[in-house]
Structure formats: C-alpha cells, structure tokens
Amino acid sequence: MKAVILAGGEGKRLRPYTMSVAKPMVPILNKPILEYSINLLRSYGIKDILITTCYKSNTIKEYFGNGSRFHVNITYLEERKPLGTAGGIFLANHLLKEPFLVLSGDAFTNIPIDQVINFHKSKKAAMTLVSKEVPNPREYGICYTNQNRKLIDFVEKPATWEGNEVNTGVYIVEPFLLKKYSRKGALDFSRDLIPSLLTNNEAVYVFKTNAYWRDIGSPEEYKRAREDLMRGLFTPEKAYLARKSETVNLDPFITRVQVACPKVKKPFVLAKLLETVPSMDEEEFIIEHRDGGWTKIVSDPDRGFIIYSKADRRNLARELARYYGKKIKTWQKV
Fold first, then answer.
1. Which ranges of the chain would DSSP assign to H, the alpha helix?
2. Nucleotidyl transferase domain spans which residues (predicted)?
3. What is the pLDDT of residues 146-180, one digit of tens each?
4. Same domain as 283, residue 165
C-alpha cells in the first residue's frame, strides 16, 4: 500500500514557528513532525510515500530527499498554488492504482494502521475515515455513523454540535473514487469530497480509534504535543511494538531537575549549549542518548534551567539529569 502525506499547508495559525519552514517540519525533540509520520508508516511496512508540497517545500525536500536515509521511497507532488487537502491527490491519480492511505502532515499520532486497513477491507469500503473523540470538536469535522459504523452525516467545524467524534484527517481511499469524482483545481476532503460521497450513498465507513492523536495546528496544540511526549503520554512506536510483543514496557522513567542561574550568566550558558547541541530554538535543547532516551534542557525566564531526562531505568534518568545539571553549574563559573 502507498501513502500520501499532506504537507502543503502554510500553517498561518502556527506562526511564528512556520515563518521559515513548512508546517510539518516544525520540530518536536529535534525531529520534524513529518519524520514521526514517516517512521510510523515504515513501521507498518508502508515504504512508498507521496508527499504533497507547496509552502516552503524546499525545507521538506532538503531534509528528506528521496527518502533513502529513512528507508522509504518518497515522491513529491509539488503544487504551484494550494490545491486543498485533496486537489493534489486527484492530480496524481495515475500514481495511485491501488487502495492508499492519506495522512495529514501536521498530525502527531500513533494510530494502528494495520487495524484501519483490516477494518477497511472487512467493510468493503470505498473510503474509510479514522475518527477520535475529543473534548472540543469546534475546529474539526464531526462524524455521525449508524450501528454498522457507516458514515451517515458529516458536519465541518460546526458553531453548535451534538457528539464529539471528529475526523482525524486519516483516510484509506479506493482508487476508483479518483476517477469517478475527477476534478481539477482546489478540492478539500471535508468540504467537497466527503459531502459528495454522502450524497451518492457511497460506502464510507468510520474507524474509531483510542490511539494518541493531536492536530498540531496552533502554538497551544504544538506545546501540548511536546509536553505529551515529554511525559511519556505519546510513544511513536507504541502501536508497532505492541504488535511485536505483549510484554514490551513502554513507560519510560523521566527525572526533572531545576538548576538556578543568574540572568547575567545565562547568555554564557546558552552559548555553551548551542555549541554542544545546535538548536532552532534557543530556549529548548534536546540531547538524544546513544542507548535510547533523551535529555531536554529548557531555559526558564524566572528559574534558570529545567532539565528533563528520560531513560528506561530510573537510576539512569536521574544520573543523566544530574550530569547536565553539573555542566550548567560549571559553565556559570566561566
């Protein structure tokens, strides 16, 4: 199966993070969001990936290239002007001759793709949407289904609503739909295609997931995603590892250490950190450890520095946090 990742959006709501990079290139723990998506696809054996690009497309292409560094094959679908979430896919219909997966480039998730594929096949669906319940569905499309999980109504970003099961922007699509509903120009899944499929009573079904999913569409959601990863609430490999073994322990140990630092000394410490760990964000530094885990050093305006260390053993996490705490204290003496 091929996958299409939608990565052409400008990400205006996520500014200033998207001033210089495409929205899917915004980093979480020094890794672009898009890289998490590619790793997820690869973990389920999906290695032929098409990526729609438009805004700041060079930042994506320069980082991922043809995909060989990430053990996948990447084809870019360049849009000269934004074509919506579905327009670029319809233009590339000649490359999509079999059922394919669609994933939003700004989705931070570990959705169990194998379960979605099995559901799609069992329902003999023309299209499958992946849904999830959220506390506030105002910014999403709400899915309404019958007892057989067939989609019977879909309301995009309602002012008032009933229910909180929303569209995650993850789909499996049968290729015949690209011919049957062929259209040139801008086209959106939620506003155009899904309503047309409902009007024609197509076999559209909804797979409801309890997996982690967050739409990184605003600075607030971006911050929450980073915090979730720090706390171990999101594990990129969770679904894949769970399939491999029922005994895998995915709960890491995280130690937090606070280090005081006078404001006059902070520029010297930040300079040392930038020498040690090049970072796009001068207030947050991520150090990945060879044996797994990481240390995150956050510059706090009022409390010096806060250090988080994650490891598979409590003692190791504690040792790593203390080690970097001592380095910060040493740098203050320079």
1. 33-43, 57-64, 84-91, 113-123, 176-180, 194-199, 219-230, 238-244, 266-276, 314-332
2. 2-229
3. 999 999 988 888 777 777 889 999 999 999 999 89
4. no
